[in-house]
Each structure stands twice: as C-alpha cells, then as structure tokens.
Automatic annotation (TrEMBL):
Top-rank taxon: Bacteria
InterPro entries found in the cross-reference section: ATPase_NBD (IPR043129), GppA/Ppx_hydrolase (IPR050273), Ppx_GppA_N (IPR003695)
CDD domains, per database record: ASKHA_NBD_PPX_GppA
Coiled coil (residue ranges): none
Domain Ppx/GppA phosphatase N-terminal intervals: 25-281
Name of the protein in question: Rod shape-determining protein
Length: 295
C-alpha cells in the first residue's frame, strides 16, 4: 500500500509518497517518491498580505502535477496541509477552495498547534528520557516543543521564520517572546538537548562535522552559518552548490536555531530525517487503518 503527504509551506511545497511496510507487529514507511518545489508563498503573504494571481496559478499547476504522480503510484490515501503562509493570507481559504475545484485536492490549512502536533508524533520516536527542546523552523513560523521522559511538556508557535526574516517581516517582539518562553519553560537544572527539523537544519547538518550520524554541536552550526554568510548569494549557489531557494534563507534560519539553543543552554542538536510530511504520512495511515477496521 502507498500513501502520500503534501506539505505546502512558506518557502516550498513537498510531496512525499511512501510504501507501508509490515514486519510482525511493527509498521514502518519507506519513501518511494519525494518532490520539492520552491513556491515561495511567504514572499507574497509577508509582503502584501495575500497570495498573488501568479502564485495561485503556480500552486494550482503544482497540485495538478502532484495529483498525477499520486495516480501513477496508485496512492490509496493522502492529505495536503498548508502552514504559515496560507493560514496568514487574506485569501488563503479562497485559494484552497479554488485549488480543490481545479484539481480535486482538498487543502487543510492547519494552525501552529496542529502543525507541531503532527511533527511531534514522529519526532518523539527519536527521543529518550532526557529533556529536549524541539525546534522546527519553517519559512513563516518556528514551532518549539519541550519534552521530558518522551512526553511533550509544552509547545508554542512563533511568527519567526526563514522567509519572514529574509523579507524583514518578523512580528514585532517575536524574538523576545521566544526567548522568554524558553527561559520560563526549560528546566535549567537538567541537561537540555536540541532537536532540529526543517529543510535548512537538514542542509546545515549535511555540511558540518558530526558527533554521530544524527548529532552535531551548537559550535558547528555557528561555524557553518558564519562560513556560508561570508559568501555572496551567487557564490552560495555556484561554489557551495546550494539551491537558489535555499541559498538566501539558510543563514536567517540558522540564526533561529542558534538563538533558541543558546537561550535554552543546549550545546548539542539532534537532526533526525523527519518533518511535517512524515507526521502527515503517519496520520493518513492511521485514518486508513480505522476505515478498514470499520468495514
């Protein structure tokens, strides 16, 4: 059985198609298709307040492509979720309705809490009993989740994101609110480890020296951020071989991870290959399983 997830973010829209694998009582998901396209919806919304006709047309075309790919893979179930840009757009819900009428794909515009919950459902599997601060940086928002003994203690969404910072559109006082939230919720008497998810931390992690297959240090993230920042945008693309839509946002995204880690007192960060799309995949599987049981 194949299932799929569509994640429409502020910077890019992703399609992931996975095969469901059964081994005894355990279920796992193997990625068989992954497509990422830089729509940059956040540029419209954070600058003008709504999605432009050009962005609506591009998003509609992309959903048509994703639908064809899902049909070719004979996907049995899927879900499309849109995050910060579309939920803040004045015409976000109208655009979602239009895309459904044109493509048949219903887009669920989810709030920060739901976004964090979906990511939490898969990230928690990579944790142990220690205290963790999960930092998920998107184009338009940053979701923070605090864990202890593999249980989520608290969570908060902040209007700080890589595209939002690039456009200079971060909400007034958002940095201070994030700092205060971390200081109030992290138990400074316990060891704290950061967990990073999002495309930018995954790319940074691929470029730094590592402590293990999934772990690196705050010092390494700082070093790589400063290294990349010394290059012009053209050189980041041509010399560092970063994608154009990654080259301009990776430094502001790194700044968010660094600040959150410093405020929490975390010296190491775990970077699992997980994100919102994986949370959506798991939810789709659970919903399909419930339907089959009812039959």
């Amino acid at each position: 059985m194949k299932i799929a997830a569509i994640d429409i973010g502020s910077n890019a829209a992703r399609l992931q198609i996975s095969t469901v694998l059964h081994n005894a009582d355990a279920v796992s998901f193997k990625r068989v298709e992954y497509v990422r396209f830089p729509l940059r919806l956040g540029h419209d919304v954070f600058s003008f307040g709504s999605l432009t006709p050009e962005s609506i047309e591009r998003t509609t075309k992309l959903m048509q492509v994703y639908k064809l790919l899902m049909e070719l893979h004979e996907v049995e179930g899927y879900m499309a979720c849109a995050t910060s840009a579309m939920r803040e757009s004045e015409n976000g819900h109208a655009v979602a309705s239009y895309i459904k009428s044109e493509t048949g794909i219903p887009i669920h515009i989810i709030d920060g809490q739901k976004e964090a919950q979906l990511i939490n459902n898969v990230v928690v599997q990579a944790l142990d009993d220690r205290q963790y601060l999960h930092i998920d940086v998107g184009g338009g928002s940053t979701e923070l989740n605090l864990y202890l003994n593999r249980q989520k203690i608290n969570s908060k969404s902040f209007k700080i994101g890589s595209v939002r910072l690039l456009e200079g559109k971060e909400t007034k006082g958002a940095w201070t609110k994030m700092e205060h939230w971390i200081e109030e919720n992290v138990d400074s008497s316990r060891e704290i480890i950061a967990v990073g998810t999002g495309g930018n931390i995954s790319k940074l992690f691929n470029m730094v020296s590592k402590l293990s297959e999934t772990t690196t240090t705050l010092a390494e993230i700082k070093r790589m951020k400063n290294y990349i920042a010394h290059f012009s945008l053209d050189d980041r693309i041509n010399k560092l071989r970063l994608n154009a839509d990654r080259a301009d946002v990776i430094v502001p995204a790194a700044e968010i991870y660094i600040c959150a880690m410093e405020w929490a007192g975390a010296q190491t960060i775990v970077v699992p290959d997980l994100g919102l799309k994986d949370g959506i995949i798991q939810l789709v599987f659970e919903q399909l399983s419930k339907r089959k049981k009812r039959k």
